[in-house]
């Protein structure tokens, strides 16, 4: 496709309200967008919009209007009339608040082979997309009604394709009054890096069943006045989004934006229904729920948006280390291990942990009033704090598995309250999972979902780890003074550093040396079993060359303790006792005909 042969109409209205019509090729339009970066009118317009200025200047009306779907000419009375039809559609995607997100979506449009160009709209909040489309046969182009129907179908098909791809609303550009989408237009704009694709495959919608003409606003009010009134009422007070991570619709109160995004639960839906009725709109909770769970609600992945917004922005300073320094502890490896855990948490969000999940869990131990839970909550930035959970019941395994897919950080608060059986079984195996098998409500099948959540834990007690062999997944942090939670955290740089580290494949897992150090460190915080207590009462470990050393099997040591302390003294089975012996630090063992023997001596 030769871009120089593709012309669009440009219309300018002068101070005397006279229209001036000219043409521009796609290539010249792209060059114009780059030149307009310094355009004062466009810059002022964008600044006012970013500042939420209600009195946005009307000077942007001086900008050219660009029409893509038809070549216009000026009639004798000064009105615009269609001279011929173009094989192009002009779409508008948005609103898109973050410039970084808009740039990302611009590149995503390349996936559709019919994309000709994409550029930032004059407001700085929309993405304009030029789409190549196959026109009907020449014999049909003289029939105005047929062409009206064709473009209606073409625009609806294209809007559906791009809105599904971009997860933002996509409409014919500039069509807000119910008029024909053939008149789709946009203002002259500015973009220092517009997208231009030389070779395209036109969108062919021939053979697709024709759909009715788009209704005007007055027709919509006549046919579905209550629904339109309800939607207008809701949109006036709230912003809505479908959080694809949580699998739920959320709302943002426009009057109290500092509350952040909150879940649109039944309590909220019932309240909306009552508010609407008080405003004179007949709306049942079912009507509100239907709208909030429809494709009208834009789909967002807040994790993906947040990660993308911080890509390649790290300033090189160790912000993660600064955060770790707020915790005073006698654990010398604290900063190193915390850094690896933090990298693992972010990698989990980014989908890097495909084989094993983030298997490291910091366990903060300190008296009440040391701000352990506050510190854990502050690890997430305000934009993602909906993903924090600290009241999960681990006896409900289904809920635990679902929370690992729906949340970002799970605080196992009061870790000591978890039973020994849960620690040694379910929790030990769950922490290492990379994906979760779930059967969602109303679903007919079990599906595998990416795990998002990492774990952190807190406790007021020191003897909390019941499984010596499984404690390598936790590292206990003895907090020696209250954690500093008052100073603000530079979340942007904190997570930019982590994103850079994950992309550089810096280590976010324990190696063999780390595991050995963790095991030795954690023994100070083990929940002593009866085997542990009685073994230390009657035996010392010995070296092989010690003259007092004996080679005793696990069963011989077990029976000796039961004989000395009583038959019911050791509550563990012989198998459990043997596993305990094999994990005693520095104990030497040798294989004999009777099995594994341990070098010990009587105390």
Task: Write a brief caption for the model.
The protein contains 18 helices and 26 strands. Strand 13 (248-253) and strand 14 (262-263) form a beta hairpin.
Describe the structure.
The protein has 603 residues and is α+β, with helices and mostly antiparallel strands. It is 35% helix and 20% strand. A 5-stranded antiparallel beta sheet has the order 9-6-8-7-11, sandwiched between helices. Strands 17-18-21-16-22 form a 5-stranded parallel beta sheet. The protein has a 4-stranded antiparallel beta sheet with strand order 2-1-3-10. A hairpin with an 8-residue loop joins strand 19 (435-438) and strand 20 (447-450). Mean pLDDT is 81; it is low at 207-223.
Measured distance between first and last alpha carbons? 91 Å
Strand order across the biggest sheet?
A: 9-6-8-7-11
How many E-type strands? 26
Radius of gyration: 33 Å
Proportion of beta-strand residues = 15-25%
Oligomer: single chain
What structural class should be given to the helix and strand makeup?
alpha+beta
The biggest beta sheet is recorded as: 5 strands, antiparallel
Mean pLDDT: 81
Mind sketching the topology for me?
Layout: E1 7-13, E2 19-25, H1 26-35, H2 40-50, E3 65-67, E4 70-74, E5 80-85, E6 88-93, H3 99-108, E7 115-120, E8 127-132, H4 144-166, E9 170-172, E10 185-187, E11 195-196, H5 217-237, E12 238-243, E13 248-253, E14 262-263, H6 266-278, H7 285-292, E15 299-300, H8 302-310, H9 319-324, H10 334-350, E16 361-365, H11 372-378, E17 388-389, H12 397-406, E18 409-412, H13 420-430, E19 435-438, E20 447-450, E21 454-459, E22 474-478, H14 491-503, H15 512-522, H16 530-538, E23 539-541, E24 550-553, H17 554-565, H18 574-582, E25 589-592, E26 595-602
Parallel strand pairs: 12-15, 16-21, 16-22, 17-18, 18-21
Antiparallel strand pairs: 1-2, 1-3, 3-10, 4-5, 6-8, 6-9, 7-8, 7-11, 12-13, 13-14, 19-20, 23-26, 24-26, 25-26
Helix pairs in contact: 6-7, 10-14, 16-17
């Amino acid at each position: 496709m030769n871009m120089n042969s593709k012309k669009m109409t440009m219309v300018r209205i002068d101070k005397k309200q006279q229209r001036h019509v000219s043409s521009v090729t796609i290539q010249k339009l792209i060059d114009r967008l780059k030149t307009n970066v310094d355009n004062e009118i466009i810059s002022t317009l964008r600044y006012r919009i970013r500042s939420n200025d209600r009195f946005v200047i009307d000077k942007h009306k001086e900008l050219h209007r660009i029409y893509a779907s038809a070549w216009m000419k000026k009639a004798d009375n000064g009105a615009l009339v269609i001279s011929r039809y173009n094989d192009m559609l002009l779409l508008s995607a948005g609103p898109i608040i973050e410039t970084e997100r808009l740039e990302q979506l611009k590149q995503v449009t390349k996936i559709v082979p019919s994309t000709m160009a994409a550029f930032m709209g004059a407001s700085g909040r929309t993405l304009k997309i030029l789409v190549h489309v196959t026109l009907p046969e020449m014999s049909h182009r003289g029939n105005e009604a047929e062409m009206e129907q064709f473009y209606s179908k073409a625009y609806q098909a294209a809007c559906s394709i791009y809105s599904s791809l971009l997860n933002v609303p996509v409409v014919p550009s500039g069509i807000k009054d119910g008029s024909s989408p053939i008149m789709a237009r946009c203002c002259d704009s500015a973009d220092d890096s517009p997208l231009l694709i030389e070779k395209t495959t036109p969108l062919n919608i021939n053979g697709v069943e024709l759909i009715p003409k788009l209704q005007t606003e007055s027709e919509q009010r006549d046919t579905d006045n209550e629904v339109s009134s309800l939607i207008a009422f809701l949109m006036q007070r709230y912003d809505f989004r479908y959080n694809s991570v949580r699998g739920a619709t959320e709302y943002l109160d426009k009057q109290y934006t500092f509350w952040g995004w909150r879940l649109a639960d039944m309590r909220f839906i019932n309240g909306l229904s009552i508010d609407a009725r008080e405003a004179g709109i007949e709306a049942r909770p079912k009507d509100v729920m239907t709208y909030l769970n429809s494709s009208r609600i834009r789909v967002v992945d807040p994790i993906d948006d947040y990660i993308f917004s911080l890509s390649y922005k790290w300033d090189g300073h160790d912000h993660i280390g600064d955060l770790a320094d707020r915790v005073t502890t006698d654990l010398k490896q604290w900063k190193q291990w915390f850094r690896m855990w933090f990298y693992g948490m972010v990698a989990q969000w980014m989908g890097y942990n495909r084989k094993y999940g983030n298997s490291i869990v910091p366990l903060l131990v300190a008296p009440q009033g040391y701000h352990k839970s506050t510190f854990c909550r502050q690890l997430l930035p305000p934009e993602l704090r909906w993903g924090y959970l600290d009241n999960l019941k681990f006896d409900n395994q289904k809920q635990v598995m679902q929370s690992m897919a729906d949340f970002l950080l799970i605080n196992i608060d009061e870790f000591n309250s978890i039973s020994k059986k849960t620690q040694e079984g379910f929790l030990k195996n769950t922490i290492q999972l990379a994906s979760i098998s779930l059967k969602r409500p109303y679903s007919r099948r079990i599906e595998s979902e990416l795990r998002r959540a990492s774990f952190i834990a807190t406790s007021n007690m020191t003897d909390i780890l019941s499984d010596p062999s499984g404690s390598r997944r936790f590292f206990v942090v003895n907090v020696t003074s209250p954690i500093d939670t008052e100073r603000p955290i530079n979340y942007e740089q904190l997570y930019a550093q982590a994103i850079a580290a994950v992309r550089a494949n810096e280590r976010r897992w324990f190696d063999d040396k780390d595991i050995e150090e963790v095991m030795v460190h954690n023994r100070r915080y083990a929940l002593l079993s009866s085997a542990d207590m009685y073994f230390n009462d009657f035996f010392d470990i010995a070296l092989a060359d010690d003259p007092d050393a004996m080679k005793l099997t696990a069963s011989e040591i077990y029976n000796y303790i039961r004989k000395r302390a009583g038959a019911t003294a050791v509550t563990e089975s012989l198998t459990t006792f043997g596993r305990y012996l094999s994990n005693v630090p520095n104990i030497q063992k040798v294989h004999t005909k009777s099995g594994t023997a341990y070098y010990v001596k009587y105390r």
